[in-house]
Design goal:
Layout: H1 7-16, E1 21-28, H2 32-37, H3 45-48, E2 51-57, H4 61-70, E3 76-80, E4 87-91, E5 98-100, E6 108-112, E7 119-121, E8 130-134, H5 137-141, H6 145-149, E9 150-153, H7 159-172, E10 178-182, H8 195-198, E11 209-213, H9 219-231, E12 237-240
Parallel strand pairs: 1-2, 2-3, 3-5, 4-6, 5-7, 6-8, 9-10, 10-11, 11-12
Protein name: F-box/LRR-repeat protein 15/At3g58940/PEG3-like LRR domain-containing protein
Length: about 240
């Protein structure tokens, strides 16, 4: 659907026709629950929807959960610039294969037991966004072995802002055998107190071989390196250099 006004009418029309794909772009508010109650209890348009893309939506957390619970056939979900969405939780959505939350202002994002998920995009999340990933095995086991077993990371200059996501990425790659990190050039961090938030819990990481380059000794780099060494219980060899 093209940009324009009367988004709710467009959305209702598409659902009434049992549309499998709905793409909406532009600032809009939709009463999803009100729409749902205007349709039959069974075999309604929500149950047929497989591909949903919303850009600049004013969807709330409650709207999001309502949509997920009723769009049971949804395979692809993409939100770009969700203006009001703060906490997204996707738990046990068995048919969802593709998920994209790029350019969001989320405070938290929980993705758990999405057993069919094969692609995930979380580009340009807000600073401090909490991301929890668990039991999404197809996302990692479906990768080619060269990607699944080895991961090379070159963080951006805004290393501290992305530190939390970097930690969670390493935790989520449960089959990772070799991890290579090239740090960006940076001075000692002025925000040492922020780091405790990111490494508060311990877990068992999978890498056996760790290579670190361009290490400058900045606080965030040191904390991340120690975090990897302390939690990679099967670590056999670690090498590094400036």
């Amino acid at each position: 659907m093209s940009e324009g006004h009367n988004f709710e009418r467009w959305f209702e029309f598409a659902l009434s026709k049992k549309a499998e794909i709905i793409h909406l772009s532009g600032y809009h508010d939709i009463d999803y629950e009100g729409l749902f109650h205007r349709f039959p209890n069974t075999n309604n348009g929500f149950e047929c929807l497989q591909d949903l893309y919303l850009s600049d939506s004013r969807m709330t957390d409650q709207d999001f959960q309502f949509l997920l619970s009723n769009c049971i056939a949804l395979e692809s979900l993409k939100f770009a610039f969700p203006l009001k969405l703060e906490n997204a939780s996707i738990v046990g959505h068995s048919k969802l294969k593709h998920l994209d939350f790029s350019y969001s202002r989320l405070d938290s994002n929980v993705i758990r037991d999405a057993i069919s998920l094969v692609s995930l995009a979380l580009y340009s999340l807000s600073d401090g966004c909490s991301v929890q990933l668990s039991n999404i095995l197809k996302l990692t086991t479906g990768m080619p072995s060269c990607m699944r077993n080895q991961l090379q990371i070159i963080p951006s200059p805004y290393f501290l802002c992305n530190f939390f996501h970097l930690v969670r990425l390493v935790e989520a790659c449960t089959l990772l055998d070799k991890l290579m990190i090239e740090f960006p050039y940076m001075l000692a961090s002025d925000n040492e107190d922020m780091l405790e938030t990111y490494v508060g819990r311990r877990c068992e990481l999978s890498p056996k071989y760790l290579e670190i380059s361009s290490y400058s000794g900045a606080t965030s780099q040191l904390v991340f390196t120690l975090y990897l060494i302390d939690n990679a219980r099967s670590l056999k060899k670690a090498t590094g250099g400036s």
